[in-house]
Amino acid sequence: MSSLLEQLIEAFRILPGVGQKTAQRMAYHVLEREREGGRRLAAVLADAVERVGHCERCRDFSEAPVCATCASQARDRHQLCVVESPADRLAIEQATGYRGLYFVLQGRLSPLDGIGPREIGLDRLAQRLAEGEVHELIVATNPTVEGEATAHYLAQIARQHSVRPSRLAHGVPLGGELEYVDRGTLSHAFGSRSEME
Amino acid sequence: MSSLLEQLIEAFRILPGVGQKTAQRMAYHVLEREREGGRRLAAVLADAVERVGHCERCRDFSEAPVCATCASQARDRHQLCVVESPADRLAIEQATGYRGLYFVLQGRLSPLDGIGPREIGLDRLAQRLAEGEVHELIVATNPTVEGEATAHYLAQIARQHSVRPSRLAHGVPLGGELEYVDRGTLSHAFGSRSEME
Ligand SMILES: [Zn+2]
Ligand SMILES: [Zn+2]
């Protein structure tokens, strides 16, 4: 049976980019200097993995059935911005003055991995567009091969429902991940998005 | 009141080297792909911060009053290796064939920060040397200014109790941290440690 310290080091390795050495440093750091913070992390983490689910409107993370953004009366219901991940959504929300709503794919089209339209919620998105409230679909997938393919698919769905598709202006570096673009660039790209042909 | 997700991101920031972006990635990663691992991390972390204390013999982390190494009958009680931190102790244990005991300072002499001999347990170390069981004191502090000053102090205490002080061979890079030395170098340096004059 391994010691609690060994178990703790092992447990930290579930975190992204955390190998054996980093996990050791984390365990030692918490035990040496951050017991109170460690206690709090343990409590919040236990609570979050049980209670954070997905918003039934936008698929973003949410504790409630409908997230605060989707429930807000202050957001513009005519604009819907589609992103691949919650991190991308957060990046846009923090960098731009966007006041519309979001739709989080939680992935992108990737037929080779068995990820088709259903897996990223496009049936639900189509339903939503059919309701007629959305006028503009802002496509903010990542500028990767799969992201671009997803963007074209999204534009098709939009047009089928007479919704105007638009996409972020070039400025986001090709092959890059939206999440890592600096705020200024992202804000500019978001502001000068163009209609999709 | 911030959302559970925001609280989780904030809580991850207690970890060393984890800023806002990394904390976000950790939270999203756990919620997207590692709920079971997150549950386990929360449980082990909560347990560890309550139950992991310090060994009363060597000051290393331990759930029991005396750690497994100090309690072991298989270790050579005539050799005592002094290190600054539990991470250094672990590095030596994993890299070398050392079968003696350890003493973990949990710091180093740093008069400007108010860290004197008592704060790093040197009174207890002196007591231990006075018991007469230890024949060789292997000084494995880091090759930094404060680590060197601590090493000289340790050598003095050893001599006062007629214990032979030794130190790791040169080979550990100057100004570096023991914890990051590759195994081969560390093993070689440990093997060719020399008596301190
Ligand atoms: Zn929502
Ligand atoms: Zn011990």
UniProtKB/TrEMBL annotation, chains A, B:
Annotated zinc fingers (C4-type), start-end: 55-70
GO BP: any one term: DNA recombination
Entry-linked SMART domains: TOPRIM
The keyword Amino-acid biosynthesis appears for this protein: no
CDD domains referenced in this protein's UniProt entry, alphabetically: TOPRIM_recR
Keywords per UniProt: DNA damage, DNA recombination, DNA repair, Metal-binding, Zinc, Zinc-finger
Molecular function terms, GO-annotated: DNA binding; zinc ion binding
Residues in coiled coil: none
Family affiliation: Belongs to the RecR family.
Protein name: Recombination protein RecR
UniProt source species: Luteimonas wenzhouensis
